[in-house]
Specification:
It is built from two helices and eight strands, in the order H-E-E-E-E-E-E-E-E-H. The protein is of the alpha/beta class. The termini are far apart. The model has no long low-confidence stretch (mean pLDDT 84).
């Protein structure tokens, strides 16, 4: 092989590596989706506490991605978090489905988990999921545990 063909191969290898790093960065940042049909419908859900949920986080059912969160806002009347999500149109959920904010692993990213209900009617664009379960905030759990332990030890010394 001559010097010019080696330089071309090295250049192609570097370009391929740069494209692989770009792909990895976009997937890790959850900025693009390379799957899905593109046809979606938008629904909303209201939560008392959304924890660390972020826009563009996945919406999953049975562990399978079925959509993506498009926006998070605060209802200024009820002071609840309003989460807008786009669901793939090839998946129809019953109207009485429930939404939970779940965490991937112990300290992983949060996502919305949908559990289908038993209704004959399906969710349509613009519907609101009424059965929701807010995020479990680890700091609140630790605080409650410590408070309960302190209360238990305080009542034990009084006896």
């Amino acid at each position: 092989m001559n010097k010019k063909s080696i330089e071309i191969l090295v250049g192609l290898f570097v370009a391929l590596g740069a494209l692989a790093l770009l792909f990895l960065a976009l997937k890790a940042a959850n900025l693009t989706s390379f799957t899905g049909t593109g046809q979606t419908y938008t629904v909303q859900a209201r939560f008392d506490n959304i924890g660390g949920l972020k826009a563009r986080a996945p919406v999953r059912s049975a562990g399978v991605n079925v959509g993506r969160i498009t926006g998070i806002s605060l209802d200024r009347v009820t002071f609840q978090g309003v989460v807008s999500m786009e669901l793939n149109s090839d998946v129809a959920f019953p109207k009485d489905s429930s939404a939970k904010i779940l965490t991937s692993g112990l300290l992983g990213d949060q996502y919305i988990g949908l559990e289908p209900g038993g209704s004959e009617q399906n969710l349509a664009a613009g519907d609101v999921i009424t059965q929701t379960q807010s995020a479990v905030v680890l700091e609140n759990l630790i605080g409650q545990f410590l408070f309960n332990r302190a209360a238990d030890s305080g009542s034990a010394t009084e006896q």
